[in-house]
Amino acid sequence: IEAVVPFGGSAVPIQNPNRHILGGKGLGLQEMGSIGIAVPPGFTLTTPLCQIYQQTNDLPTELWEEVKKAIARLENDMGKKFGDATNPLLLSCRSGAAKSMPGMMDTVLNIGLNDETVKGLASATGNPRFAYDSFRRLLDMFGDVVLGIPHEDFEEKHAALKKKYDAQTDLELNADHLMELCQAYYKVYEDKGLEFPQDPFEQIQKCVRAVFGSWNSSRAIKYRKLNNITSLLGTATNVQTMVFGNLGETSGTGVAFSRDPGTGEAKLKGEYLINAQGEDVVAGIRTPEPISTMEKNLPEAYKEFIQNVNALERHFKDMQDVEFTVQEGKLWMLQCRSGKRTGHAAIKIAVDLVKEGICSREEALLNVEPDHVKQVLHPTFPQKVLDSPQYKDNIIAVGLQGGPGAAVGKLCFHTEEAEERSSEDLILVRENTSPEDVGGMWASKGILTSRGGVTSHAAVVARSWGKPCVCGCSDLEIDAQNNIMTIKSTGEVLKANELISINGSTGEVIRCAIPTESPTVDGDFGTLLSWADEIEDSCKVMTNADSGPDSAKAVELGAKGIGLTRTEHMFFDHARLPHVRAWILHGVGIEKLCEFQRSDFRDIFRAMGGKPVTVRLLDPPLHEFTPPLTSVCESMAKELGYDDVHQLKIDIEKMHEENPMLGLRGCRLGICRPELTTMQVEAIMNAAADIIDVDPSANPFPRIMIPLVGNVREFEHQALLVKSTAEKVKKERNKNLRYEIGTMIEVPSAALQSEKIAATKDPETGDFLCKFFSFGTNDLTQMTLGISRDDAGEFIPKYNELGIFKKDPFKTIDADGVGWLLRLSAAKGRSVNPSLSLSVCGEHGGDAASIEFFDDVGLDYVSCSPFRVPVARLASAQAAL
Ligand code: ADP
Ligand code: MG
Ligand code: MG
User: Fold this and answer.
1) Is residue 694 located within the same domain as residue 607?
2) 97-128, pLDDT tens digit by residue?
3) If you measure from the C-alpha of residue 240 to the centroid of ligand 1, how many angstroms do you get, rounded to a whole number?
4) Which of 157, 469, 582, 881 has the fewest beta carbons closer than 10 A?
């Protein structure tokens, strides 16, 4: 692969441009050039050079010859010379990795200006004001990016000069003022003992190095970490001919999305500024105008712009985010990429693009990220709350719609503090945000700023994370030093830690905590998920649910059944606990527990109709239900049938285990206290029969799952007991109740002898006893890795940092170890019983990356918590595509 790849102008488009090599910006420029869109000509220095730069802290000397040749082409195309004293070519040097990292890395504009060329630019354009403005920007950016001089040092001089000449805005400074400003900027260099290189080629060399170096700036590293961006080669560096949006009233610059990134509406959404350089829009220095006004001011350029945007959507089959500049009426596209969007927008756009014939259903499914689906399942303010006085009368300010959704939390004015208090619900309030703030933004529930538009840093980052954001709320005066903010129009003062709510969908700020609501799957969301379900050979998605309401919610969210009911959750209820304890401690009153469970199972079967309901027999060690010794008292002892507190304490202490996770739990309970298994199976089967009594057409489908089996005889013991009990109930109730028996595979030894477990037969009928395996990946991970899930939090972050783990194995399946066992077990099981159903229950069932693995193994379904069901439906379709 070439190190230097030209684009735009006379460049011949390259075959199969590769995002990893060119970076996203380089790829966009390359593709725009190839479909005939005007981009300022330039060239990409590819990402492998960034790796070389990281390893050697330098770039190969031969590279500079290539760069010289590439610049010569630009000179030819533009009819100007780099470093020419009469009509100089100027260049920009722009970072751009394969994945977008907004504002994290550096860009330098107007390279090629010096004390001589600036005069040439002034006379060539007849616009000395413009020339010196461009030069002072270069001095600022070069100082900042290449030499590490804080931008504020230059800003200080800028502000001082404005004050000196009584200028309210930058535009009031004339050429002489700006010339004076350049001298002041030189002074900043001088005070630091640093020098601005006059040689244009030396400038370009230093800028290229600095841009490659910005890959490893601490904020870029932090951003990659927060966003889990790994496996990139580095950034590319794009060197590009400068075009100017600040050459007067027929010039301008802007950014736009081809569709609304907040709602997905098919309407161009963007902002632009007449007579400005791009930086001014992004940095939120001047408040830009909506893109629609460009139609009036620059009609020709606007028309071409619309054509470009439409062509790009069709070419990339996705919503685009573009940057452009108009120089004296001529439109130049500077950047395009798939636009970041909210979950709601992602779903609407995907469905609309299919309707408009721009992409296929499969392509649309691949354009929605599991995280988008997660976002849509975030809370919102329900309509009835929006209409209530509690909401309406407490609106204290209205800003711009930075990122939709509802957030409620305590006011926090400092980024570092938000990071430290990340476990609390906070709303981060800032004048505006910069890349230094990403840690605090991540830690907050929502973001509120007083300055900056809908493409400001705060809004862009918030939307990409699905965080509600209200930006540009100019009625706020934020005094971070004193931890207060004032509503200017009313004088109301709010202090740190006061509860507020923000509505990113309307821009409203509310002075109190407003209740939120969780959403449902209908409209476009439902359409998209139904397309996901239609993808052949994808894993089905079931849910983990322990109650009627949870089951109903899961069905609403598209679950095809229950993959795991944890029966222990039925025992923790306040009213039930004394009975549970009485049975555990003296073995009495198990009928009572049977009653409780039977009624819960009825609720679940009712909610699930004829869908499978996989019930796990009791799993945790029984001492989880006994009271903590410190809470034991006279009345509790009496309630549990003890004459004396002391004896109760002794009985509780007797149940203590050193290693409860490996103690008396799972099927070991049912083996040591078989009445437990009998009771549970009776409850399940009777509940199923009860349902049919009420509605003879009902067809409940219990599947009874034996946990923590480690050896085939454990399984056999419990399976036979389950079977005889189930058959007994069938006879008693005189009903042909259907049911299945299966086991969890969560102990490594069970995985290793899966063919034996799968082959177990009922000695009477000769039928297979085991109809399904469900991989309990939580325990399987703990036991295979020998890492306790509850204690791993202490060192997993360190392991991730050192690269020992790529991902937290309790979130994403450890494919090499745990995954290998799972694959082995699946193969062994199916080798003796080809119709054995295989599935996963456990946290991994809702994790997109794990689902990809499970799909590859060929599992029939995954099971996850109800709110993860839609995410899993999408992930499972994507895995199969
Ligand atoms: P980022 O990746 O942070 O968006 P860019 O490389 O896109 O950085 O540069 C920031 C801004 O600088 C762009 O939005 C654009 O307005 C301006 N810019 C960069 N290169 C050029 C160029 N060759 N001509 C005109 N403006 C440019
Ligand atoms: Mg950009
Ligand atoms: Mg388990």
Assistant:
1) yes
2) 999 887 778 899 999 999 999 999 999 999 99
3) 9
4) 881
Task: Give domain status of residue 115, yes or no.
Answer: no
Are 329 and 388 in a shared domain? no
Protein residue with least CA distance to atom 17, ligand 1 = 278
Q: How confident is the model at residue 302 (pLDDT cuts 50, 70, 90)?
A: very high
Q: What are phi and psi of 385, to 5 degrees?
A: -70, -40
Of all helices (H) and strands (E), which one includes residue 566? strand 562-566
Q: Considering only CA atoms, which of 568, 698, 597, 585 is closest in space to residue 640?
A: 585
Query: Cα–Cα distance between 285 and 596 in angstroms, integer?
Result: 65
**Phi first, then psi: what are they for 170, rounded to 5°?**
-55, -35
Query: Residue 442: which CATH number?
Result: 3.50.30.10
Protein residue with least CA distance to atom 24, ligand 1: 242
Is there a contact between 555 and 607 (Cβ–Cβ < 8 Å)? yes
Question: Which residues have a Cβ under 8 Å from the Cβ of 110 and sit 6 or more positions away?
Answer: 90, 92, 134, 135, 137, 138, 141, 242
Q: Does 647 have pLDDT greater than 90?
A: yes
168 in any annotated domain? no
**What tens digit of pLDDT does each residue of 689-726 get?**
999 999 999 999 999 999 999 999 999 999 999 999 99
Å from CA of 576 to ligand 3 middle: 23
The active-site residue, picked from 457, 579, 717, 844, is 457
How far is the C-alpha of 22 from the C-alpha of 43, rounded, in Å?
10
Q: Which ligand is nearest to the CA of 705?
A: 3
Q: What is the DSSP string of 337-364?
A: EEPP--HHHHHHHHHHHHHTTSS-HHHH
Residue whose CA is at the smallest distance from ligand 1 atom 23: 242
What is the ipTM score, two decimals?
0.93
**Residue 164 CB contacts under 8 Å (≥ 6 apart), including other chains:** none
Q: What is the number of the ligand closest to the CA of 333?
A: 1
| In-domain check, residue 695 | yes
Per DSSP, the three-state class of 567 is helix
Query: How many domains does the chain fold into?
Result: 3
pLDDT in tens, 800-824: 888 898 888 988 999 999 999 999 9
The range of the structural domain enclosing residue 332 comes to 243-341
Instruction: Specify the CATH number for the domain of residue 259.
Output: 3.30.470.20
Q: How far is residue 766's CA from residue 785's CA, in Å, rounded to a whole number?
A: 37
Q: Are residues 329 and 459 in the same domain?
A: no
d(CA 310, CA 341): 18
Does residue 738 lie within any of the structural domains? yes
Nearest residue (CA) to ligand 1, atom 14: 278
604 and 712 in a common domain: yes
Alpha helices in 427-518 (DSSP H): 438-443, 457-465
CA–CA distance, 395 with 351 (Å, rounded to integer): 34
Residues 6+ apart with CB under 8 A from 481: none
Q: What are the pocket residues of ligand 1 if the criterion is a CB atom closer than 6 Å to any ligand atom? A: 40, 92, 94, 103, 107, 109, 240-243, 253, 278-279, 282, 323, 325, 334-335
CATH of residue 730's domain is 3.20.20.60
Residues 280 and 401 in one domain: no
Count other Cβ atoms within 10 Å, centred on residue 708.
24
CA distance to 68, 85, 132, 330, 663, per residue, from 247 (Å): 28, 20, 12, 12, 77
Are 496 and 405 in a shared domain?
yes
* Shared-domain flag, residues 610 and 482: no
Cα(779) to centroid(ligand 3), Å: 5
Nearest residue to 247 via CA among 127, 145, 398, 92: 127
User: Around Cβ 586, how many Cβ atoms within 10 Å?
Assistant: 12
Query: Pick from 310, 326, 341: which residue ends a domain?
Result: 341
Same domain, 304 and 430: no
Q: Which residues are within 5 Å of ligand 2 (an ion), measured at CB? A: 335
- Atom number, ligand 1, closest to the C-alpha of residue 40: 23
In degrees and rounded to multiples of 5, residue 686 shows phi and psi of -65, -40
